[in-house]
Amino acid sequence: MKILERLLTDALLLQPNVFEDQRGTFIETFKSVEFQKLVPGVVFVQDNESTSFKGALRGLHFQAPPHAQTKLIRVSHGNIFDVIVDCRPKSSTYGQHFAVELSAENHLQLLVPKGFAHGFLTLSDTATVNYKVDDYYHPECDGGIAYNDPDLGVDWPLSDCIISVKDLSLPRLKDLKNPF
């Protein structure tokens, strides 16, 4: 695994080891000893998986302290438009976003640090997103910001999206009672 790009403060775009031959590919999607060299101190405790249909927009979500989560996102089937937003008021990249296409074909992984909101839009007919987290889900710490906050300026590539009622009611970043 190697760092392809250092994004917003503390966020990383990673490329796992991909071995290809005439039979196909073998990918080391996660290797703890290698990951610890790149991101010391982050220990994942749970793996999650979601499958979404084309146009499904999930986010922008975070877990607030004391159960804030670092996430490692990858796509095992299909492709998504993945977005992170730095919600940490003391960060030099506060309020900035980064977007990248993650797919089963490009094998890219996105490290989302604590204090970032995360969301994605499914671009393929279906997509399976796998992500590791370093703390368990706690409903009382569940939070997020509006996917369409004009201050963020995210240019979502599809306009006809499937969005949950919960996600439609999330506040703009400037109106968030910020836990970070």
Description:
This protein has 180 residues and is mainly beta. The protein is built from 2 helices and 13 strands. The strands form 3 sheets. The protein has a 6-stranded antiparallel beta sheet with strand order 1-2-10-7-12-5, with no helix packed on it. The chain is globular and about 55 Å long.
What tags apply to this protein structure?
180 residues; 5-stranded antiparallel sheet; mainly beta; 6-stranded antiparallel sheet; globular
* Spatial order of strands in the largest sheet: 1-2-10-7-12-5
The span between the termini is 29 Å
Overall mean confidence score, pLDDT: 96
Largest sheet: 6 strands, antiparallel
What is the total tally of β strands? 13
Indicate the low-confidence ranges by residue numbers: none
The helicity comes to under 10%
Number of alpha- plus pi-helical segments = 2
Classify the beta-strand content into a percent band. Answer: 35-45%
Structural class: mainly beta
Q: Give me the Rg, rounded.
A: 16 Å
Given the C-alpha coordinates, what overall shape results? globular
